[in-house]
């Protein structure tokens, strides 16, 4: 695994541990889902249902694939070596990426405006300066919007263990790339 990917893994674990108790469990995904939905007030019920389902699938996949001892929680040691495995997590990541990106496009014009992007990413737990750096790396248009497809692809790239120098690396620190 590349150094950049290892940094992304550590950040993702800390974000998924939404309640800060040192492990990831279903309560963390409920908490994160609620925060994201609060930020997506203008999104329609279809998009809201899709992100709920994507978060549920994400937790189910983590619990099934990584909870080695069956105790209902995923520790950082269980999480670290396996979460960036495209064979195990690719379809789950793709569903999540599509649902989150669609949630950011309530007017369904295929573009995400910076304020909503920032709100959604803040709700997940990313640092605001890093969020802006990521948005800028996606190459916004003259109206400060990015393509839904660009964001979805960026999410999938974020979970690829062999990727480096990607826009998502900006989430681990503004100076990371």
What do you see in this structure?
The protein contains eight helices and two strands. The protein has 177 residues and is mostly helical. It is globular, with a radius of gyration of 15 Å.
Quick take:
The protein has 8 helices and 2 strands, in the order αααααβααβα.
Shape: globular
Estimate the strand proportion: under 5%
N- and C-termini, Cα separation: 17 Å
H-E string: HHHHHEHHEH
**Strand arrangement, major sheet:** 1-2
| Uncertain stretches | none
Characterize the main sheet: 2 strands, antiparallel
Number of alpha- plus pi-helical segments: 8
Supply Rg: 15 Å
Quickly give the structural class: mainly alpha
Number of strands: 2
Mean pLDDT: 90
Summary keywords:
two-stranded antiparallel sheet, 59% helix, mainly alpha, 177 residues
Layout of secondary structure:
Elements: H1 3-16, H2 26-39, H3 45-66, H4 76-79, H5 86-103, E1 111-113, H6 114-124, H7 128-137, E2 145-147, H8 148-158
Antiparallel strand pairs: 1-2
Helix pairs in contact: 2-3, 2-6, 3-5, 5-8, 6-7
């Amino acid at each position: 695994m590349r150094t950049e990917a290892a940094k992304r893994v550590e950040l993702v674990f800390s974000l998924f541990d939404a309640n800060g108790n040192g492990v990831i469990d279903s309560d963390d995904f409920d908490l994160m889902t609620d925060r994201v939905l609060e930020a997506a007030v203008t999104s329609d019920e279809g998009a809201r249902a899709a992100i709920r389902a994507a978060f549920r699938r994400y937790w189910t996949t983590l619990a099934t694939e990584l909870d080695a001892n069956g105790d209902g929680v995923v520790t950082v040691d269980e999480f670290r070596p396996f979460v960036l495995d495209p064979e195990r997590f690719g379809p789950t990541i793709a569903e999540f990426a599509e649902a989150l990106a669609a949630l950011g496009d309530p007017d369904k014009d295929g573009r995400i405006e910076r304020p909503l992007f920032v709100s959604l990413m803040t709700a997940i737990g990313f640092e605001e300066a890093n969020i802006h750096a990521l948005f800028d790396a996606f190459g916004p248009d003259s109206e400060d919007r990015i393509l839904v497809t660009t964001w979805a692809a960026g999410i999938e790239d974020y979970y690829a263990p062999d990727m480096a120098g990607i826009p998502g690396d900006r989430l681990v620190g503004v100076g990371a790339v």
